[in-house]
Here is the input.
Amino acid sequence: MESVKNQTKVKSANGKLGVMIVGCGAVATTFMTGVLMVRKGLAKPVGSLTQYDKIRVGKGDNKRYLPFADIVPLAKLDDMVFATWDVYPQNAYQAAMYAEVLKEKDINQVRDELEQIVPMTAAFDKNYAKRIDGDNVKDCATRWDMVLQLREDIRRFKQLNDIDRVVVIWAASTEIYVPVYMPVHGTLDNLEKAMKDDDRQHVAPSMCYAYAALTEGAPFIMGAPNTTVDIPAMWELAEKTKMPIAGKDYKTGQTLVKSGFAPIISTRCLGLNGWFSTNILGNRDGLVLDEPENFRTKEVSKLSTLETILDPTCQPDLYKDYYHKVRINYYPPRNDNKEGWDNIDIFGWLGYPMQIKINFLCRDSILAAPLLLDLCLLIDLAARAGRYGIQRFLSFYMKSPMHDYTQDETPVNNLYQQYTLLKNAIREMGGFEPDEEID
Here is the structure.
C-alpha cells in the first residue's frame, strides 16, 4: 500500500542555486571540489545524508524508506553555482592545492572549473582574526558600508550567472568572542544603528555578511562558533525578510563523537566525574584558534554540548559537578588531519570508577564537506517551503545549535534526538506525517 501524502506547498527546485561561501580555504575548497567531482561521476558524496540516507514515511503496511529527494524537491548538484569571498586572492584551484587536503590528482580532474572561482574581496577586520594577514579585502568606511558592498556582491553574482536562488554559508575562520550585548544585539533597529555608527566592538564582520544575505533574500548558515545570527536582532531580520537561518559551528570531529557517545552514558544511567577533550590541528583554522580570544569563541561552542545531554538538574546523583575541559593545540605538522583525544571518567554501580578513552584521527575538511552540501540543500528547501527564522531541524549538523535563550529554551544536543528533528522536518515538508517523538 502507498503512504498517504498530504498537500504540500514547497516551491520547485528548478533553476540555478547560487552557493556563496565566506572563505575559500580548506573546508570550502574540499566541498566545492567534491561537488564538482561527484557531478562528473568521478567520486561519491560519502557522508551526505541528502545523497545517501533514507527516511521512513508511513507506518505499518504503508511504511516505505525513501531517499530525501523522493520525499522533498531538492536542488540538483548540477544546478549549483559557486562563489566565494576570501582575504587571499588565490582562485579555488590554487587554494585547494595550498590546503593539501585532497590529492593533486583529484583536484586536477576539476581544475578548469575551480580556476573560474576567484574570490571576491572579503569584508574583514583584522581585530577579529589577528593571525590572518591577507590583502584581498574591502575598503569599508563603516560596518554599514560593509553591508552595502556585500549586498552589491550578491546582486552582481546573481545577475552575471543567471541565478534563481542564493544561499550564503560561512566557511571562514573563527572570529574573536563577542558576548551578546542586548543594547546593540537586542533589536534590529539598534543593530542597524550600530552598523551606521560603525560600532566595531559589537558588530562583527560575520554579522554584516548575515545581514546582507538576509536582506538580499538569501538564507544564511553560520558554520563557525561566531556570534552572528544567534542574536534577537537577526531573528527579527529573519522574520522580516521571511528567510531561514542556521547555526552554529559545524559538528565534525570531537563534538560529533561527544553528541553521539554521551547518550550512551545517560541511557545506561552511568555517572560522570569528568570529560577532558583536547585536539591538535595544523591548518589555518588551528592557527587562528591559537589566539586566545578566538579560542574562547570555539571553547564556548564545544563546552555547550554535554550540558543538555548529561543534565545535573535531572540526575543530580549522576551528573552533579562533573568537570568538563576542552583544549585545542596548534600543531602545524598535522595540517588538516586533526586528532582528538577524549578522556572520560565515569562511575558505575556503588560509585566505582571507570575510564573511557577515545582517539579520533579525523580529517576535518573531509568531515565538514558533506555537512556544507546538506546544509545548503536543506536550507534552500526550507526557504522554498516558507520556513523562516531559526531552523532547529538543522541542529544535527551543528556543535552549538541555535535556540531562543531569551525564552529559556534548551537546545537539543543529543545526536539521536537531533536526527529525529531532521527526519520529522523532511517528512513534514514532503507532505507526510512527522510521526516520531523526541523522548
